[in-house]
């Protein structure tokens, strides 16, 4: 039996997180960018009747209960919350794609990009996950991809396919990729893409008949 990675999840049901976007703020004077991550609120999980609890992080809660939705100050005036730009709306200037790799044992997100407009270069990337968030800078001469390693609940997967075949289960459905791109702003992409049944990707799954046949052969080999 293969050894389990320390990053492998022990979750038995798909984790869930609020659909709220990560809040980012920018100073119009100096260009500073801040992320709202906490507030004077409880970190809660809600039972809404589904199999797994819905995680509601502090950034997802609305005023007046959480100060992350208020505007912080910089250079003597309130910062503005950064409006999000859907990745599909700027594909003619900046192309953002992803792959889910590693199966259950070494789960990660590969984020690829292409600056079709050479003036639209990413400065950093953020990833919203089931349990929180990650950020990575694009260092000088850095080539795609940027890789976000996942662990614990964030590494949940329904199957061990590597790469992920983007089936209808969409293991990372509430995840979001954020790219702070020069001359565009904050580009967001949801990790909810899936490939229609019958396509080459989902055909990689064994059918029930094939699964039963493999089990029969395995028993025969063991002499059972």
Query: What letter string, H or E per element, gives the SSE order?
Result: EEEEEEEEEEEEEEEEH
What's the end-to-end separation, in Å? Answer: 20 Å
Task: Report the mean per-residue pLDDT as an integer.
Answer: 87
Structural class computed from helices and strand pairing: mainly beta
Described by the principal axes of the CA atoms, the overall outline is globular
Commentary on this structure:
With 224 residues, this protein is mainly beta. Helices cover 7% and strands 29% of the residues. The chain contains 1 helix and 16 strands. The strands form 5 sheets. A 5-stranded mixed sheet has the order 9-16-15-12-13, with no helix packed on it. Strands 1-5-4 form a 3-stranded mixed sheet, with no helix packed on it. The longest helix has 15 residues, at 208-222. The two termini are 20 Å apart.
Give a quick rundown of the structure:
With 224 residues, this protein is mainly beta. Helices cover 7% and strands 29% of the residues. The longest helix is centred in the last third of the chain and has 15 residues, at 208-222.
Record the SSE blueprint.
Blueprint lengths: L15 E2 L6 E3 L6 E3 L8 E3 L7 E3 L16 E2 L2 E2 L1 E2 L2 E3 L8 E7 L6 E7 L7 E7 L4 E5 L8 E4 L26 E6 L3 E6 L17 H15 L2
Q: Which descriptors apply to this entry?
A:
224 residues; mainly beta; 3-stranded mixed sheet; 16 strands; 29% strand
């Amino acid at each position: 039996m293969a050894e389990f990675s320390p990053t492998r999840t022990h979750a038995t049901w798909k984790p869930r997180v609020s659909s709220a976007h990560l809040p980012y703020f920018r100073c119009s004077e100096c260009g500073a960018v801040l992320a709202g991550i906490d507030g004077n609120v409880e970190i809660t999980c809600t039972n809404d009747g589904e199999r797994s609890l819905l995680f509601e992080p502090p950034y997802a809660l609305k005023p007046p209960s959480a100060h992350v939705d208020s505007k912080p100050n910089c250079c003597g005036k309130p910062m503005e919350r950064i409006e999000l730009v859907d990745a599909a709306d700027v594909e003619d200037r900046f192309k953002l794609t992803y792959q889910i790799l590693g199966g259950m044992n070494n789960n990660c997100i590969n984020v690829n990009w292409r600056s079709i407009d050479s003036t639209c270069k990413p400065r950093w990337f953020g990833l919203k996950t089931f349990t929180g968030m990650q950020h990575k800078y694009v260092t000088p001469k850095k080539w795609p991809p940027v890789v976000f390693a996942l662990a614990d609940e964030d590494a949940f997967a329904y199957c061990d396919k590597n790469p992920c075949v983007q089936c209808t289960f969409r293991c990372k459905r509430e995840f979001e990729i954020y790219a702070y791109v020069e001359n565009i702003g904050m580009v967001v992409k949801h990790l909810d893409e899936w490939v229609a049944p019958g396509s080459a990707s989902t055909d990689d799954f064994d059918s029930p008949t094939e699964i039963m046949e493999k089990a029969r052969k395995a028993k025969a080999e063991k002499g059972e």
